[in-house]
């Protein structure tokens, strides 16, 4: 299937690892030009070097949780060219009891997970509407619909992204600009894979057994009873960014293996 993404300029925040990096790979394979972003200049440069064999890759180090750093990122993107696709992927989470989460931690969640997407969308959406072309995709989570008691601030921040996406789609109503959210579930990223592997060893179990027990006991509603791969999530994001998905707008696209136990 031809996705018509050749030479499209794509910014992916938080793309030096995990889903963000995997999404960069998928876009590059479709011929897009990709801007890698992360907080560490060293990590950004290393990722650009690693992925440059796949196509045109730029790197901009900036902490998108910081307003001034966001402005720096926006200016440098504009120097490269008109942005066609914005992927707001940056996000953090910490497993912590609700009563132990401080006010400062709540505000950090919003600056990183929500305000980064708000600021970048404010900068690039008007230009997309003016050109009558563009895509914004906010990487949310199934936790935005299915709250976890140990991840309440994270879940609320992801619910906010889902609402932001629908609201921005309404702002762009009647144009060829679409805004959607993507809701990954448990995904086997490199970092999470290491965590699960170490946890299995600590419990004296082989990895396959540990994973099966995890889904049976902790994620019984999962229909696939396994972790999604980074490629599965990334390819969904890339498809939604393509011309083939032009009628998908204001949607919350699940890629969580059926964990959310509802038909809508």
UniProtKB/TrEMBL annotation:
Alphabetical keyword list: Oxidoreductase
Transmembrane segments: none
GO BP of this protein: bile acid metabolic process
Domain of life: Bacteria
Entry GO MF terms: oxidoreductase activity
InterPro entries registered for this protein in UniProt: NAD(P)-bd_dom_sf, Sc_DH/Rdtase_CS, SDR, SDR_fam
Keyword Endoplasmic reticulum: no
PANTHER family: 3-OXOACYL-(ACYL-CARRIER-PROTEIN) REDUCTASE
Family: Belongs to the short-chain dehydrogenases/reductases (SDR) family.
Name assigned to this protein: SDR family oxidoreductase
């Amino acid at each position: 299937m031809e996705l018509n993404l050749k030479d499209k300029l794509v910014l992916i925040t938080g793309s030096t690892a995990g889903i963000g990096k995997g999404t960069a790979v998928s876009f590059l394979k479709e011929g897009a030009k990709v801007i890698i972003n992360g907080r560490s200049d060293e990590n950004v440069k290393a990722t650009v070097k690693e992925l440059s064999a796949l196509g045109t890759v730029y790197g901009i180090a900036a902490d998108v949780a910081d307003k001034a750093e966001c402005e720096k990122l926006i200016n440098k993107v504009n120097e490269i060219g008109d942005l066609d696709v914005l992927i707001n992927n940056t996000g953090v989470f910490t497993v912590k009891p609700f009563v132990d989460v401080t006010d400062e931690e709540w505000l950090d969640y919003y600056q990183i997970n929500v305000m980064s997407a708000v600021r970048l969308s404010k900068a690039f959406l008007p230009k997309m509407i003016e050109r009558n072309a563009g895509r914004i995709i906010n990487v949310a989570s199934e936790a935005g619909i299915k709250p976890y008691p140990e991840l309440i601030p994270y879940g609320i921040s992801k619910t906010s992204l889902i609402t932001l996406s629908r609201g921005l789609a309404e702002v762009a109503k009647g144009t060829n600009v679409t805004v959607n959210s993507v809701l990954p579930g448990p995904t086997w990223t490199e970092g999470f894979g290491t965590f699960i592997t170490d946890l299995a060893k600590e419990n004296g179990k082989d990895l396959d057994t540990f994973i099966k027990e995890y889904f049976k006991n902790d994620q019984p509603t999962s229909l696939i009873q396994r972790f999604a791969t980074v490629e599965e999530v990334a390819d969904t994001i890339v498809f939604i960014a393509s011309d083939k998905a032009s009628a998908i707008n204001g949607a919350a696209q699940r890629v969580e293996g059926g964990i959310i136990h509802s038909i809508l």
